[in-house]
Amino acid sequence: MPILGKYSIGVGDRFAHQAGAQLQACLLASKAGIEVIPVWNKSNREHTIIGSEPASVRVAADAAVKELDWKLPYFCDADHINLSTVGRFLPACDFYTIDVADAIGKPADVSSIDSFVHRHTELPGAVAMDACAQTIEITPALLRRTAANFLFAVQEAGKIYRRIENAKGKDTFIPEISMDETDSAQSPAELLIILAAIADEGIPIQTIAPKFSGRFNKGVDYVGDPAQFAREMALDMAAIRHAVDRYGLPSNLKLSVHSGSDKFSIYPAIHASMQQFSAGVHLKTAGTTWLEEVIGLAEAGGDGLALAKEIYAEAFAHSAELCAPYATVIDIDSTQLPAPAEVTRWSSAQFTGALRHNPNWPAYNPSFRQLLHVGFKVAAKLGPRYLDLLELNREIIAKNVTENLYARHIAPVFLGHAQPHAR
Asked: Please, what is the end-to-end C-alpha distance for the chain in angstroms?
């Protein structure tokens, strides 16, 4: 069975041009003394928007690994798949993010719920966990309510897992279950109950992505109480340790933090929890690399800057259409979006200052950044015009991609370094 390492990072690459620059960030981590395993992820939605196939992710990853002589494991993630979309990913992927958020709240049959509750008489009460001094309180009512809300979703995950297993063979891929794209956060108590159900279903997950409290908007910082997040993450890690010991789940099971890019204010809490529990985390980033491509083009000036401005103008003109699929994970203040006519007069420094994620920089504009984050469809429609400029400005873009992934993500989360100031 492939084993996902203790520290891993999901790296999205919308246009399959930055795998080498992304892998370079993992090589920098190796030089700093830690192993961070890259997992290239791209969802069915992104493939559909861009017009690509999962094989393109595998080709780009394999080429980068060969070019940079990467000796550690690496994976390609079928990101947020379900029964209807998993098929196209089967030949190319060896990591599967099984997304069952849409099934949460749909009731399992009463006999299944009754059977689960009767089978897990160890759960009600104060569950003591060896990993920490705190207990998790589970009342009989909470146990039944959680089973009613999540058991059907776990059963759906089992169907998807077995579909993959039947196609690829047992112990040939890494399964993850994702429950983050839903309205309500799951408490540590609910997570423990869900893990018991996953074990019953026979899914050997190596990561699980719950929904945490607060907002995880795309490409910008965490919105919420970092102290509350820290308490939640610590109890989640303790619940995972307890579930591994009690229910026989894989010993390397760890939390997956989805939409984890740019969540600078909670990186210290993630690092502290990993140290406390000697645990790992899978930090999932995605559109941050696409934004670094636009930053690199703008920084290059000339045709690159002109195209970056054109992409913004088109995104501004079609903002409703672009934002609709991401409505739950963006918060754009339209009054803070500069008019395209104003942006056309910007210098490279003005454009990159507004887009690059440095909360301490006066020019930084989170609404501008979020609109461009969801605006990759504009670049996809440009086709060769965009891709040719990526190649022409490969060096400056790669520098931005590597620096962003290593200095702003890998180093603070996995090494505990202070968040650097952007240039």
From this structure: 43
Q: Are 281 and 274 in contact (CB under 8 A)?
A: yes
What distances in angstroms separate CA 243 from CA 33, 148, 205, 274, 326, one per listed residue?
30, 20, 12, 17, 33
CATH placement of domain 7-287+405-415: 3.20.20.70
In this prediction, residue 286 carries a pLDDT of 81
Phi then psi for residue 196, to 5 deg, are -60, -40
Q: Report the alpha-carbon distance of residue 36 to residue 299 in Å, rounded.
A: 29
The encoded tokens of residue 325 equal 């699929």
- Structure-token pair, residue 70: 């990467």
Distances (CA, A) of 279 to 6, 188, 255, 266: 7, 16, 9, 16
The 10s digit of each residue's pLDDT in 224-261 is 999 999 999 999 999 999 999 999 999 999 999 999 99
Residue with tokens 């000339």: 302
Distance CA 290, CA 138 (A): 43
DSSP 177: E
C-alpha–C-alpha distance, residues 298 and 397, integer Å: 10
Tell me the C-alpha distance between 68 and 207, whole Å: 27
Phi, psi of 81 (to 5 degrees): -95, 160
Contact 13, 402 (CB under 8 A): no
Task: For residue 410, give the DSSP letter.
Answer: I
Q: Is the pLDDT of residue 144 over 60?
A: yes
Q: How far is C-alpha 19 from the geometric centre of its chain's CA atoms? A: 16
Report yes or no: 246 and 197 within 8 Å, Cβ to Cβ. Answer: no
Q: Is residue 375 very low, low, confident or very high in pLDDT (cuts 50, 70, 90)? A: very high
Residue carrying the six token digits 């308490």: 231
Q: Nearest CA to 287 among 215, 363, 217, 385?
A: 217
Residues of the chain with CATH 3.20.20.70: 7-287+405-415
Question: Residue 214 — left, alpha, or beta (φ > 0 → left; ψ -120 to 50 → alpha)?
Answer: left
Tell me the H-state helices in 169-225: 188-201
Q: Which residues contact 334 (CB under 8 A, 6 or more apart)?
A: 319, 367
Cα gap 147→151, rounded to integer Å: 5
